[in-house]
Amino acid sequence: MTPDGLDKRGKTPGGFYRPELDGLRFFAFFAVYIRHTFGLQMGGTHHHLPNWLGEFIGAAGIAGTFGVDLFFVLSSFLITELLTREIQQTGTLNIRSFYLRRMLRIWPLYFFMLAIGYAAAWIDPTEGFTWKHLLGFLLFSGNWVFMLLPVPTVAGPLWSVSLEEQFYLFWPWLVRNRSPRRLAHFALGMMCVAAVARYAMGTLQPDKDWVSENSFTRIDGIAIGILLSVSLKGRIPSITMPLRYLLAAGALFLLLLVATQFHLFILPVDHWRLVLGWPLAAIACGMLLLSALGAQGIMGAVLRHPVIIYLGRISFGLYAYHEIFLKIGDRLLPERASSPKQLIEYFLLGLIPTLLMSMASYRWLEMPFLRLKKARFTVVASRPD
Fold first, then answer.
1. What's the whole-model pTM score?
2. How far is it, in rounded angstroms, from Cα 213 to Cα 162?
């Protein structure tokens, strides 16, 4: 056994927990946060920064969008891993318990944030979260309602949770009766469907964003996570640290390349960019997961640092709540688009209260349900708390 409770093959007896993936989950949130702060505020100015630095920050901000795809990769990888391990250990799959685990993990914070979003619309006239949006999110189709009826709302980040919930609905039924090879074929089929759907959307509605929140066009990350799980078969990849660093650097370069050269958010998008850009970003996110899984050295030390691990555990709250405080920053710092000082203040004003609220939420809102989940419905342990 190693110091972190793993056997020589990188497995935990009866469970699967990799602390470095919690660390990676935090950086997925942080990428999204960079997008919503620096990425959306740089505009055409570099705030008196050197041109190369301004261009880099702008590119990194756009690339931060793909933090959502990294969340998708991590989620589908872990869910597939845990479901297949449950079958291996018990000979069956308790789908009812799976649904209850997901409900206990997601629903308390999810419904609490929906209540905040709906209440905010009554308090702030610039918030557009109506009963139609609420109903869509309650029916776990919030991404579709948000795509068809786009509005400014602090509950906006929950669109991606709706997409993941749709994945959770059908995936255990497929895992239960299919071999790893069949699951891999299904994941590849998902990517083909996504490519065809993006091409069709780009042809029929080239001036509308029907792609970035669509359940059929944004599933490449989910497919990549599945492919990694069935390919690794529960093993930790035997990759040297130099190769891991090269893999991570290549992934970051690929994300920056897609962000700057594919122009996925400037409509209309060329068909080849629309078809290739999203899967390339998802593949890059898969490369990040592969480089992190079992990493040692500096990479492993950073991803397994206790603070980073904790931030990864509360990343759901960080992701769900951060728009609340950025909304406040919008009002208090109106000159952030031209003032470097206000831009930094905007960044901190959003981040620090989000951290505090997420810590409180994790302890008092989420943990009671997580303890119940662990005590009553967990078959394959996936985290120490």
1. 0.92
2. 10
